[in-house]
Description:
Chain A is an all-alpha fold. The first copy, chain A, is 80% helix and 0% strand. The first copy, chain A, has 9 helices and no strands. Chain A has helices at 6-25, 32-39, 43-50, 53-77, 82-93, 101-116, 118-143, 147-167, 174-193. In chain A, helix 1 (6-25) crosses helix 2, helix 1 packs across helix 4 and helix 7 packs across helix 8 (147-167). Chains in contact: A-B, C-D. The interface between A and B is large, with 39 and 39 residues. Chain A binds a DNA duplex through residues 6-7, 10, 31-33, 41-45, 47-48, 52-53.
Amino acid sequence: xxxxxxxxxxxxxxxxxxxxxxxxxxxxxxxxxxxxxxxxxxxxxxxxxxxxxxxxxxxxxxxxxxxxxxxxxxxxxxxxxxxxxxxxxxxxxxxxxxxxxxxxxxxxxxxxxxxxxxxxxxxxxxxxxxxxxxxxxxxxxxxxxxxxxxxxxxxxxxxxxxxxxxxxxxxxxxxxxxxxxxxxxxxxxxxxxx
Amino acid sequence: xxxxxxxxxxxxxxxxxxxxxxxxxxxxxxxxxxxxxxxxxxxxxxxxxxxxxxxxxxxxxxxxxxxxxxxxxxxxxxxxxxxxxxxxxxxxxxxxxxxxxxxxxxxxxxxxxxxxxxxxxxxxxxxxxxxxxxxxxxxxxxxxxxxxxxxxxxxxxxxxxxxxxxxxxxxxxxxxxxxxxxxxxxxxxxxxxx
Amino acid sequence: xxxxxxxxxxxxxxxxxxxxxxxxxxxxxxxxxxxxxxxxxxxxxxxxxxxxxxxxxxxxxxxxxxxxxxxxxxxxxxxxxxxxxxxxxxxxxxxxxxxxxxxxxxxxxxxxxxxxxxxxxxxxxxxxxxxxxxxxxxxxxxxxxxxxxxxxxxxxxxxxxxxxxxxxxxxxxxxxxxxxxxxxxxxxxxxxxx
Amino acid sequence: xxxxxxxxxxxxxxxxxxxxxxxxxxxxxxxxxxxxxxxxxxxxxxxxxxxxxxxxxxxxxxxxxxxxxxxxxxxxxxxxxxxxxxxxxxxxxxxxxxxxxxxxxxxxxxxxxxxxxxxxxxxxxxxxxxxxxxxxxxxxxxxxxxxxxxxxxxxxxxxxxxxxxxxxxxxxxxxxxxxxxxxxxxxxxxxxxx
DNA sequence: AATGAATGAGTTTTCATTCAT
DNA sequence: GATGAATGAAAACTCATTCAT
Lengths: 194, 194, 194, 194
């Protein structure tokens, strides 16, 4: 039986609390104390584990990215065709784990942060490039030279739907969002085949 | 000759400084003093004219929205057909005034703010609904019942391209962005006609 | 016909506004702008006429003191006997002009101010001494060597009734207050005669 | 041995510093920084323990009130007769702890504050009512229906003596002040018996 | 005479961060 | 490992006061 260890437990709790707090505040203007209280520890402990506040935020961001990455990877492994791989990416983007209001808020906040904080920017770029590469790779056999272009469109649309979701008064409709992107793809690929 | 009036001058200067400062900081975490200094006045004067910081931010937001509104309205007046009206909206979105890094940064920052500040949210919603109405109205004769759906896709894509532009290492390529949206429309409308 | 002159008019308006504002705020924490607005002029004009804020406050204080002085002097002139003179002072203290909530608030605020501002303290002392002298003078033929002591008691009781009035939830009852002091005097003077 | 506990220590120090600072300033226009410096801590700590400045002021007020309450209660317990109880209240009012210039200044400042700040007003009213009830209760067997009236006179005189003491150039003479009130009582009660 | 414009000097309050225990 | 205690630094906001017009 692996002793779970207090530290990893605390770290997880703090990261979860960070995301929840960001969602509740709707921005990164969240105090370390708020986060710590939510995680049931002292703010000093948050510093002890993560160093500066920025590091905690980065860790939360990394957590979100990794979660998405795992989710997407799983779906990609199960996808037999290029077209299915594209759907896998879309499904992961609008999957239950990603499209929760909580996650979307945090996501958007991190995007803004990336404009001013270099480490956050680096993180997002790695993710963006990986996503782009995956899309292009899957699109290549279906759309040839238009692949990068379509990938760009797909990525933009996904991001745009997140943005609107973050703001939206309407309840999140992951299915409708996914369908919109799928349709975009279908139009492009049908046109290609024609 | 109308006396220029100092107040409108100062207000304009402060709003301009606000947008510039937001861009430079990459977020709304800008102090009133920074903004005031940039406008060449004291922070007290900024408070004198705008009240609280939030009011200044809102005024800047309103300014951006109004600018876009005027730009779009001008282009729409010159558009003879529904399809041209759609292009007018897209052109306004990616026009020189709107797609400057400066404006895009501020835009995104305001989106985040709208998550927590009700007045900002109201402002963005008004803009979003107006845009949506314009798009649907122009799409109706071309796409019938699919109009709302396509409008949603167009709006999402535009927002997504802004988001990516805000983050992007690449220099802004308004033409490419606009082309992507135009193409999206063409695909939908071609399919419709077919 | 005496041209009233703008200046005296403005000064009066400002002093009245000062007292009203102090009453409304319940303390001297009133801004010059508030006072000026209430008087219908700019704050700059208040400074123009009175110099610093302290000077305006002092002028308002002086106004209150002078008003009380005039009121008391009038009543004293009409008082035929020492006992009547004592009643005159009491009547002036609780007269309509003095015992208004407005005046009482200001009065108390000035008492506090006198603790830290020398000019205000000097002003109040002059008034206190004059009042004391008047009381002693009237008491001497009635109470002999006990005059200063009784004067002290009367003055304290008047001040105390003001204090309680300033705080009181009950509506001001000038008659009851005056009666309490009169009774105090009667007891002393009856005892003296006995 | 109970660990002294830093928090209670700091709270006490801050409250003491508040009262001292109010006395020195002669009003509540005292900055949190001044108070904190006097207590030997940072202003941030004052906020940490008391929240807003108002809360610190209220705590100081409550401290004064409680101190007086304890003092009076002790003396009342030792008073065998109604008349002795009245003297106990007077003695407590002018006792060494209460009639210090420091305390009197603060007292007066709080009275003014009560005019504009509801919580302060509530606090003072509780104290005023309790005092009134005590006086009336002790006076009832001695003065019958005149008890409330005399109680009012006693309370007013005490407050008035505080007021004059706050302003006074003369050194505080607690004995003389107390004697004045005692005499007032004696006159009333002698008259009653007669 | 009168004012709008403008600001410097402060004041409260918040918060990330450190440190002794 | 964990925390309460403590603070320096900063930020929003206020206000008396000055000055050009």
